[in-house]
Amino acid sequence: MTPIEHIVKSISLAPHLDDANLPSDDEWEKIAVVAIAVGLAPLLHQHLIQTDLVLPPMAKAKLAVLRKAHAKRNQEIANQLAEVLAACAQNNIDVLVLKGALLAPTVYADPALRPMNDIDLLFREESIARAESVLEGLGYAGKHKDADQGPGVVKHLSTYRREGNEGATPNPYISANADRMVEPHVSLEEAWFGLKVDITPGVWERAVPIVLHNQPAFRLSTIDLLIHLAVHATFHVIMGSSVFLQLYDIGQVVQTMADEIAWTEVLEHTRQAKAEAFTYAGFYWAKALYQAAIPEDVLATLKEACSPDLVAYVQSLDATGLLTRTQHPPLITFKQRLQRGLLDRKEAARWADSLSAKWNIWQTALTFYKTDTMHLLKQSLKSEA
Q: How large is the average pLDDT for residues 171-176?
């Protein structure tokens, strides 16, 4: 087995390592490195300390250090989030907490098991300007982006952070001291070079009020939460971003919130959002990798709405395939950026459900002047002038 296969089998909701074929010491070293890179080190460490396996000291130390670092980071994020929630409450601004900032303290046995990157928050569209003012009042500086620039991501067009806390690497799973940015969202739309799906309609009406870190907040309904996690994880794969932790989230929600899940409603809301392909892929991978308790009939219904070619592609991506798809070396040269842009559009077009949708993706290559690559090229030319 490859290192990532060992990891997912170890942390699966139904662990099934072959005790007669355990990794060697050298293999454990590689396993620890991969687990750290994809954000699974705390979960792997938790599993291993619950077994009688004897790890090489270096591999064991690496996993333990990262788990401790993420515990510290997550506590700092909790404190930071509590401050933001309190300030928003004082200004009568509703806040819906998304992704890791919600999941770590609510569906994981220990918040440290769920590494986090940014604090993702959803605001009502009419409240976003006031929310950004609140963040600025707390000492955050905003960085804004044009909706037409780059791949066309519009669910959030700004990021906010305080000075300092800059990590040594852009991978937050490796550098647990990296930036803890706040990303204020106005929608849950996923978009990538013209490929779009939006599950936002109705989520505020179905939102659930909660108390998080002793402050008032909202979360998505369990139905919307599952769909959002599945769609978001699939777009991670499409964009070439790490996805293993996001897929594990799905299994945790299904396991801890089982009594709140009406699968017929999951299917209906998915159909209304025309998100069947993306939800199918996220659910399929969560079940294939971690034995997430997704009912077979739900997968079968979602599968029927997908093209045979797309189903075959989804099913072809096992743990090793997903790692290859979502781990890329940094883009250094102009040529590499151009090549990556074409590959990104090719991957996005794979998921489009019509010729017109595919054209919407490929025509983004004709507006080269709006891309991040052109923006960087202009900056380079200016610095050389």
A: 60
